[in-house]
Design a protein that fits this description.
It is a single chain. By secondary structure, the chain is an alpha+beta fold. The protein folds into two domains: 2-86; 104-337, 2-Layer Sandwich (BirA Bifunctional Protein, domain 2). It is 39% helix and 20% strand. It is built from twelve helices and ten strands. It has helices at 2-13, 20-31, 36-43, 49-83, 104-117, 132-135, 171-179, 220-235, 288-293, 310-318, 325-328, 331-335; strands spanning 122-123, 129-131, 155-157, 163-165, 184-193, 205-215, 241-248, 251-260, 277-286, 302-309. The strands form two sheets. A seven-stranded mixed sheet has the order 1-5-6-10-9-8-7, sandwiched between helices. The longest helix has 35 residues, at 49-83. The protein is elongated. The termini are far apart. The relative contact order is 0.11. It binds 3,4-dihydroxyphenylalanine (DAH). 3,4-dihydroxyphenylalanine (DAH) binds at residues 168, 170, 210, 248, 251, 282-284, 305-307.
Length: 341
Protein backbone atom coordinates (compact mmCIF):
# COMPACT_ATOMS: atom_id res chain seq x y z
CA UNK A 1 0.00 0.00 0.00
CA UNK A 2 2.88 2.32 0.77
CA UNK A 3 4.20 1.79 -2.76
CA UNK A 4 0.83 2.66 -4.18
CA UNK A 5 0.68 5.87 -2.13
CA UNK A 6 4.16 6.83 -3.30
CA UNK A 7 3.25 6.23 -6.93
CA UNK A 8 0.13 8.38 -6.54
CA UNK A 9 2.11 11.21 -4.92
CA UNK A 10 4.49 11.27 -7.89
CA UNK A 11 1.58 11.16 -10.33
CA UNK A 12 -0.19 14.06 -8.60
CA UNK A 13 2.97 16.21 -8.45
CA UNK A 14 3.28 15.95 -12.24
CA UNK A 15 -0.37 16.79 -13.03
CA UNK A 16 -1.10 19.54 -15.58
CA UNK A 17 -4.38 21.16 -16.64
CA UNK A 18 -5.25 23.41 -19.58
CA UNK A 19 -8.82 24.23 -18.58
CA UNK A 20 -11.24 24.37 -15.67
CA UNK A 21 -12.84 21.12 -16.92
CA UNK A 22 -9.53 19.31 -16.71
CA UNK A 23 -9.07 20.57 -13.17
CA UNK A 24 -12.50 19.27 -12.25
CA UNK A 25 -11.69 15.86 -13.80
CA UNK A 26 -8.59 15.67 -11.69
CA UNK A 27 -10.56 16.52 -8.56
CA UNK A 28 -13.08 13.76 -9.32
CA UNK A 29 -10.38 11.23 -10.13
CA UNK A 30 -8.39 11.73 -6.94
CA UNK A 31 -10.38 13.59 -4.34
CA UNK A 32 -14.09 12.82 -4.81
CA UNK A 33 -15.91 10.28 -2.60
CA UNK A 34 -15.29 7.55 -5.13
CA UNK A 35 -11.83 8.86 -6.05
CA UNK A 36 -8.53 7.07 -5.67
CA UNK A 37 -7.61 8.65 -2.36
CA UNK A 38 -11.00 7.81 -0.80
CA UNK A 39 -10.66 4.22 -1.85
CA UNK A 40 -7.22 4.07 -0.28
CA UNK A 41 -8.77 5.49 2.90
CA UNK A 42 -11.22 2.59 2.83
CA UNK A 43 -8.39 0.10 2.39
CA UNK A 44 -6.70 1.65 5.41
CA UNK A 45 -9.02 -0.34 7.72
CA UNK A 46 -7.36 -3.59 6.67
CA UNK A 47 -3.80 -2.36 7.28
CA UNK A 48 -2.13 -4.34 10.11
CA UNK A 49 -2.04 -2.42 13.39
CA UNK A 50 1.76 -2.12 13.49
CA UNK A 51 1.79 -0.38 10.07
CA UNK A 52 -1.18 1.89 10.69
CA UNK A 53 0.87 4.75 12.00
CA UNK A 54 3.21 4.95 9.02
CA UNK A 55 0.55 4.33 6.38
CA UNK A 56 -1.75 6.86 8.05
CA UNK A 57 0.91 9.54 7.85
CA UNK A 58 1.58 8.77 4.20
CA UNK A 59 -2.11 8.89 3.39
CA UNK A 60 -2.56 12.28 5.06
CA UNK A 61 0.46 13.58 3.21
CA UNK A 62 -0.98 12.36 -0.08
CA UNK A 63 -4.29 14.06 0.59
CA UNK A 64 -2.67 17.39 1.48
CA UNK A 65 -0.47 17.29 -1.60
CA UNK A 66 -3.42 16.51 -3.86
CA UNK A 67 -5.39 19.46 -2.46
CA UNK A 68 -2.42 21.78 -2.85
CA UNK A 69 -1.77 20.66 -6.41
CA UNK A 70 -5.40 21.24 -7.33
CA UNK A 71 -5.32 24.76 -5.84
CA UNK A 72 -2.07 25.56 -7.72
CA UNK A 73 -3.54 24.40 -11.03
CA UNK A 74 -6.66 26.55 -10.47
CA UNK A 75 -4.52 29.55 -9.62
CA UNK A 76 -2.30 29.18 -12.71
CA UNK A 77 -5.37 29.01 -14.92
CA UNK A 78 -6.91 32.09 -13.28
CA UNK A 79 -3.82 34.27 -13.79
CA UNK A 80 -3.34 33.09 -17.38
CA UNK A 81 -6.98 34.02 -17.92
CA UNK A 82 -6.46 37.51 -16.45
CA UNK A 83 -3.62 38.51 -18.77
CA UNK A 84 -5.40 37.15 -21.79
CA UNK A 85 -8.65 39.03 -21.11
CA UNK A 86 -10.25 40.71 -24.09
CA UNK A 87 -9.79 44.48 -24.19
CA UNK A 88 -6.39 44.34 -22.54
CA UNK A 89 -3.70 46.01 -24.67
CA UNK A 90 -0.58 43.92 -24.33
CA UNK A 91 1.36 46.23 -26.67
CA UNK A 92 0.79 49.23 -24.41
CA UNK A 93 4.07 50.70 -23.07
CA UNK A 94 4.89 50.11 -19.44
CA UNK A 95 4.31 52.65 -16.68
CA UNK A 96 6.10 55.79 -17.89
CA UNK A 97 9.42 56.65 -16.28
CA UNK A 98 9.65 60.44 -15.90
CA UNK A 99 12.43 62.07 -17.89
CA UNK A 100 15.35 63.55 -16.02
CA UNK A 101 16.73 66.89 -17.06
CA UNK A 102 20.16 68.19 -17.91
CA UNK A 103 21.79 70.23 -15.17
CA UNK A 104 22.08 73.95 -16.07
CA UNK A 105 25.85 73.80 -15.54
CA UNK A 106 26.06 70.93 -18.04
CA UNK A 107 23.94 72.88 -20.53
CA UNK A 108 26.26 75.87 -20.33
CA UNK A 109 29.37 73.69 -20.36
CA UNK A 110 28.14 71.98 -23.54
CA UNK A 111 27.51 75.37 -25.12
CA UNK A 112 31.06 76.42 -24.24
CA UNK A 113 32.35 73.17 -25.82
CA UNK A 114 30.47 73.93 -29.02
CA UNK A 115 31.71 77.49 -29.28
CA UNK A 116 35.36 76.59 -28.73
CA UNK A 117 35.04 73.30 -30.62
CA UNK A 118 34.06 75.33 -33.69
CA UNK A 119 37.36 77.18 -33.32
CA UNK A 120 39.47 74.03 -33.24
CA UNK A 121 39.79 73.50 -29.48
CA UNK A 122 39.65 69.97 -28.12
CA UNK A 123 38.79 68.90 -24.58
CA UNK A 124 41.48 67.93 -22.07
CA UNK A 125 40.86 66.76 -18.53
CA UNK A 126 42.97 66.23 -15.43
CA UNK A 127 42.64 64.93 -11.87
CA UNK A 128 40.85 66.82 -9.08
CA UNK A 129 43.36 65.54 -6.52
CA UNK A 130 46.59 67.27 -7.43
CA UNK A 131 50.07 68.11 -6.23
CA UNK A 132 51.73 71.44 -5.56
CA UNK A 133 53.72 71.32 -8.81
CA UNK A 134 50.73 71.18 -11.17
CA UNK A 135 48.49 73.61 -9.28
CA UNK A 136 51.06 76.18 -8.15
CA UNK A 137 54.82 75.77 -8.73
CA UNK A 138 54.77 75.04 -12.47
CA UNK A 139 52.40 77.99 -12.91
CA UNK A 140 54.89 80.48 -11.50
CA UNK A 141 53.29 80.91 -8.08
CA UNK A 142 56.00 82.13 -5.67
CA UNK A 143 56.46 79.85 -2.62
CA UNK A 144 54.72 82.34 -0.32
CA UNK A 145 51.80 83.18 -2.64
CA UNK A 146 48.59 83.62 -0.59
CA UNK A 147 46.65 81.20 -2.84
CA UNK A 148 48.64 78.34 -1.32
CA UNK A 149 47.42 79.30 2.11
CA UNK A 150 45.39 76.88 4.21
CA UNK A 151 42.56 79.44 3.98
CA UNK A 152 42.04 78.76 0.30
CA UNK A 153 43.38 75.33 -0.46
CA UNK A 154 42.10 72.02 0.84
CA UNK A 155 45.22 70.05 1.60
CA UNK A 156 44.85 66.29 1.81
CA UNK A 157 48.35 65.79 3.18
CA UNK A 158 51.47 67.92 3.52
CA UNK A 159 54.13 65.26 4.09
CA UNK A 160 56.28 64.13 2.37
CA UNK A 161 54.91 66.52 -0.28
CA UNK A 162 51.67 68.43 -0.73
CA UNK A 163 48.59 66.57 -1.97
CA UNK A 164 45.62 68.89 -2.45
CA UNK A 165 42.31 69.47 -4.18
CA UNK A 166 42.94 71.63 -7.23
CA UNK A 167 41.91 75.25 -6.75
CA UNK A 168 41.71 75.91 -10.49
CA UNK A 169 41.75 74.03 -13.79
CA UNK A 170 45.01 75.76 -14.80
CA UNK A 171 46.71 72.57 -13.53
CA UNK A 172 45.48 70.83 -16.71
CA UNK A 173 47.55 73.34 -18.76
CA UNK A 174 50.72 72.01 -17.14
CA UNK A 175 49.68 68.38 -17.49
CA UNK A 176 48.99 68.86 -21.19
CA UNK A 177 52.13 70.87 -21.95
CA UNK A 178 54.25 68.26 -20.14
CA UNK A 179 52.97 65.47 -22.36
CA UNK A 180 52.15 67.09 -25.73
CA UNK A 181 54.16 69.11 -28.21
CA UNK A 182 52.80 72.40 -29.64
CA UNK A 183 50.60 73.27 -31.38
CA UNK A 184 48.27 72.77 -28.40
CA UNK A 185 44.72 74.06 -28.50
CA UNK A 186 42.62 72.80 -25.60
CA UNK A 187 39.80 73.67 -23.27
CA UNK A 188 39.75 72.00 -19.87
CA UNK A 189 36.46 71.74 -17.99
CA UNK A 190 36.31 70.58 -14.41
CA UNK A 191 35.43 70.95 -10.76
CA UNK A 192 37.66 73.01 -8.48
CA UNK A 193 37.73 73.40 -4.70
CA UNK A 194 38.38 76.32 -2.36
CA UNK A 195 38.10 76.54 1.37
CA UNK A 196 35.28 79.10 1.48
CA UNK A 197 32.29 79.43 3.79
CA UNK A 198 29.21 78.32 1.84
CA UNK A 199 26.75 81.13 1.10
CA UNK A 200 24.55 82.40 -1.73
CA UNK A 201 27.64 83.92 -3.37
CA UNK A 202 30.42 81.43 -2.57
CA UNK A 203 30.81 77.66 -2.39
CA UNK A 204 33.60 75.31 -1.46
CA UNK A 205 33.47 73.80 -4.95
CA UNK A 206 32.57 75.19 -8.35
CA UNK A 207 33.38 74.58 -12.01
CA UNK A 208 35.77 76.19 -14.44
CA UNK A 209 36.73 75.97 -18.08
CA UNK A 210 40.32 76.71 -18.90
CA UNK A 211 41.58 77.52 -22.39
CA UNK A 212 45.12 77.20 -23.72
CA UNK A 213 46.64 77.79 -27.13
CA UNK A 214 50.38 77.32 -27.73
CA UNK A 215 51.99 77.67 -31.15
CA UNK A 216 54.51 79.81 -33.02
CA UNK A 217 53.68 83.53 -33.26
CA UNK A 218 50.56 83.51 -31.08
CA UNK A 219 49.64 87.08 -30.15
CA UNK A 220 47.33 88.94 -27.80
CA UNK A 221 45.24 89.88 -30.85
CA UNK A 222 44.50 86.16 -31.41
CA UNK A 223 43.33 85.86 -27.81
CA UNK A 224 41.10 88.90 -28.13
CA UNK A 225 39.45 87.60 -31.30
CA UNK A 226 38.75 84.15 -29.85
CA UNK A 227 37.19 85.70 -26.73
CA UNK A 228 35.10 88.17 -28.73
CA UNK A 229 33.73 85.29 -30.79
CA UNK A 230 32.95 83.39 -27.58
CA UNK A 231 31.17 86.37 -25.96
CA UNK A 232 28.98 86.98 -29.01
CA UNK A 233 28.05 83.33 -29.44
CA UNK A 234 27.24 82.96 -25.76
CA UNK A 235 25.52 86.28 -25.00
CA UNK A 236 24.31 87.55 -28.37
CA UNK A 237 25.78 89.24 -31.47
CA UNK A 238 25.61 92.78 -30.04
CA UNK A 239 27.83 91.92 -27.06
CA UNK A 240 30.92 94.09 -26.62
CA UNK A 241 34.04 93.06 -24.72
CA UNK A 242 36.54 95.07 -22.70
CA UNK A 243 39.93 93.89 -21.46
CA UNK A 244 41.30 95.42 -18.26
CA UNK A 245 44.93 94.93 -17.18
CA UNK A 246 45.20 92.48 -14.29
CA UNK A 247 47.64 90.08 -12.66
CA UNK A 248 47.95 86.28 -12.66
CA UNK A 249 51.26 84.56 -11.87
CA UNK A 250 51.03 82.34 -14.96
CA UNK A 251 50.31 85.01 -17.60
CA UNK A 252 52.17 88.14 -18.69
CA UNK A 253 50.54 90.43 -19.64
CA UNK A 254 47.30 89.45 -17.87
CA UNK A 255 43.81 90.82 -18.26
CA UNK A 256 40.28 90.44 -17.02
CA UNK A 257 37.51 90.49 -19.55
CA UNK A 258 34.17 92.23 -19.12
CA UNK A 259 31.20 91.96 -21.42
CA UNK A 260 28.65 94.71 -21.97
CA UNK A 261 25.80 94.04 -19.56
CA UNK A 262 23.30 92.03 -21.58
CA UNK A 263 20.51 92.89 -19.16
CA UNK A 264 20.52 96.67 -19.62
CA UNK A 265 22.42 96.62 -22.93
CA UNK A 266 25.26 98.63 -21.34
CA UNK A 267 23.18 101.53 -20.03
CA UNK A 268 23.75 100.63 -16.39
CA UNK A 269 21.42 98.67 -14.08
CA UNK A 270 21.35 97.07 -10.65
CA UNK A 271 22.87 93.88 -12.09
CA UNK A 272 26.00 95.60 -13.45
CA UNK A 273 25.99 98.05 -10.52
CA UNK A 274 25.41 100.93 -12.89
CA UNK A 275 28.64 100.35 -14.82
CA UNK A 276 27.22 98.76 -17.98
CA UNK A 277 29.89 95.99 -17.79
CA UNK A 278 30.16 92.60 -16.07
CA UNK A 279 33.34 90.62 -15.52
CA UNK A 280 33.38 87.11 -16.97
CA UNK A 281 36.92 85.74 -17.14
CA UNK A 282 40.67 86.06 -16.63
CA UNK A 283 43.19 85.68 -19.44
CA UNK A 284 46.64 86.57 -20.72
CA UNK A 285 49.75 85.48 -22.62
CA UNK A 286 51.32 82.38 -21.06
CA UNK A 287 54.34 83.49 -18.99
CA UNK A 288 57.61 82.19 -20.55
CA UNK A 289 58.49 80.74 -17.10
CA UNK A 290 55.46 78.45 -17.37
CA UNK A 291 56.40 77.28 -20.86
CA UNK A 292 59.95 76.52 -19.72
CA UNK A 293 58.73 74.71 -16.56
CA UNK A 294 56.74 72.41 -18.86
CA UNK A 295 59.62 71.79 -21.26
CA UNK A 296 58.48 74.10 -24.08
CA UNK A 297 61.05 76.43 -25.65
CA UNK A 298 59.77 79.94 -24.95
CA UNK A 299 62.03 81.44 -27.62
CA UNK A 300 60.18 79.43 -30.27
CA UNK A 301 56.65 79.21 -28.92
CA UNK A 302 54.19 81.59 -27.34
CA UNK A 303 50.58 81.18 -26.31
CA UNK A 304 47.55 82.50 -24.54
CA UNK A 305 45.37 81.14 -21.75
CA UNK A 306 42.04 82.02 -20.24
CA UNK A 307 39.87 80.72 -17.44
CA UNK A 308 36.23 81.21 -16.54
CA UNK A 309 33.75 79.98 -13.93
CA UNK A 310 30.85 77.99 -15.39
CA UNK A 311 28.57 79.06 -12.51
CA UNK A 312 29.34 82.70 -13.32
CA UNK A 313 28.48 82.31 -17.02
CA UNK A 314 25.32 80.39 -16.07
CA UNK A 315 24.30 83.14 -13.62
CA UNK A 316 24.76 85.76 -16.30
CA UNK A 317 22.66 83.79 -18.74
CA UNK A 318 19.93 82.56 -16.42
CA UNK A 319 20.09 84.86 -13.37
CA UNK A 320 20.44 82.15 -10.72
CA UNK A 321 20.55 84.16 -7.50
CA UNK A 322 21.84 81.57 -5.06
CA UNK A 323 24.93 79.48 -5.89
CA UNK A 324 23.75 76.72 -3.56
CA UNK A 325 20.91 75.90 -5.97
CA UNK A 326 23.45 74.33 -8.32
CA UNK A 327 24.39 71.58 -5.89
CA UNK A 328 21.04 70.94 -4.20
CA UNK A 329 19.53 69.20 -7.23
CA UNK A 330 15.99 70.27 -6.43
CA UNK A 331 14.05 68.94 -9.43
CA UNK A 332 11.80 72.05 -9.47
CA UNK A 333 14.91 74.15 -10.07
CA UNK A 334 16.33 71.73 -12.65
CA UNK A 335 13.07 71.63 -14.61
CA UNK A 336 13.18 75.40 -15.02
CA UNK A 337 15.86 74.77 -17.65
CA UNK A 338 13.86 72.28 -19.73
CA UNK A 339 13.24 74.90 -22.41
CA UNK A 340 16.97 75.50 -22.78
CA UNK A 341 17.64 71.88 -23.88
N1 LIG B 1 43.14 80.19 -12.73
C1 LIG B 1 42.46 81.46 -12.58
C2 LIG B 1 41.51 81.39 -11.38
O1 LIG B 1 41.20 80.32 -10.96
C3 LIG B 1 41.67 81.79 -13.82
C4 LIG B 1 42.55 82.11 -14.96
C5 LIG B 1 42.96 83.40 -15.18
C6 LIG B 1 42.96 81.12 -15.82
C7 LIG B 1 43.76 83.73 -16.24
C8 LIG B 1 43.82 81.44 -16.88
C9 LIG B 1 44.20 82.76 -17.09
O2 LIG B 1 44.27 80.53 -17.74
O3 LIG B 1 45.00 83.04 -18.14
O4 LIG B 1 41.11 82.40 -10.89
Amino acid sequence: MIDKIKALRAEIAALQAQSAEEVEKIRIKYLSKKGEISSLMNDFRSVPAELKREVGQQLNQLKTEANERLAALKEALASADESGKAGMDLTRSATPIPFGTRHPLSLVKNEIFEIFGAQGFTIAEGPEIEDDWHVFSSLNFPPDHPARDMQDTFFISREPSDVLLRTHTSSVQTRTMETQKPPIRIICPGRVYRNEAISARAHCFFHQVEGLYIDKNVSFADLKQVLLYFAREMFGPDTKIRLRPSYFPFTEPSAEMDISCHICGGKGCAFCKGTGWVEILGCGMVDPNVLEACGIDSTVYSGYAFGMGIERITNLKYRVKDLRMFSENDVRFLHEFDAAH
